[in-house]
Design brief:
Layout lengths: L1 H12 L8 E3 L6 H10 L2 E4 L2 H9 L7 E3 L6 H10 L3 E4 L2 H14 L4 E8 L21 E2 H8 L8 E9 L8 H14 L7 E5 L4
Parallel strand pairs: 1-2, 2-3, 3-4, 4-5, 5-6, 5-7, 7-8
Length: 204
């Protein structure tokens, strides 16, 4: 009941918007937990091939799975494409090259991707779990995102359709997240084909 109540609170907070809520399987990959949330309407955020497998075992529609994370391996990316995950959040340019090549190998005509922006925003949380400041190793700086968006033809089997923002965990207020989202919106303003902002962050 507590899981479903928490999910419902988040769903109600975004009522009236075209919002899709995904549960981060790394928080608790228990199949009963995943199944309960999937049955309540949640998608799944996975950071490994194993988490994708568990999400599918729990009944997730692969289209409702987002594959995120900094340590994706080529075999995991291949698996994600073969099962048909809905989104891949990309951390660096080399990952785009891998996905494009794997899409050709696996017969995928188009793979929907969100670029992870490092918005250079410091979250009000423990420094070890703040991931959106300028010194963090995570994501792409704004100039690199703009550079990628200017040369999309380099990856013919990738559809760059979203921007991904994750500034940290244990976020007790929304101020830093709001600033990060605004930075993302400003960056993608010239690109009308980017219609999705993937907002991530752990709530205490």
């Amino acid at each position: 009941p507590r899981l479903r109540a928490n999910y419902e609170r988040i769903r109600q907070a975004f009522a009236g918007l075209d919002a899709h809520i995904h549960y981060s399987a790394k928080a608790n990959g228990n199949l009963a937990v995943l199944t309960a949330l999937i049955n309540a309407g949640a998608g799944i955020d996975a950071v490994s091939g194993g988490e994708i497998h568990r999400a599918l075992a729990a009944g997730a529609d692969p289209v409702r799975i987002v594959f995120a994370g900094v340590g994706k391996t080529v075999p995991e990316l291949r698996y994600a494409l073969r099962v048909g995950v809905g989104w891949i959040n990309v951390e660096n340019v080399a990952e785009l090259d891998h996905i494009d090549a794997l899409a050709l190998e696996t017969g995928r005509e188009s793979v929907r991707v969100a670029l992870r922006l490092n918005p250079d925003v410091a979250a009000s949380t423990h420094p070890h779990i703040a991931t959106g400041h300028g010194g963090a190793k995570f994501g792409l700086a704004a100039p690199i995102v703009a550079e990628v968006l200017a040369q999309t033809s380099r990856w013919p089997r990738i559809t760059l359709a979203g921007i991904h923002v994750h500034i940290g965990s244990q976020l007790g207020d929304v101020d830093a997240t709001r600033r990060a989202v605004q930075a993302a919106l400003d960056l993608i303003a010239p690109y009308p084909h980017i219609r999705t902002v993937n907002i991530v962050g752990g709530l205490p």
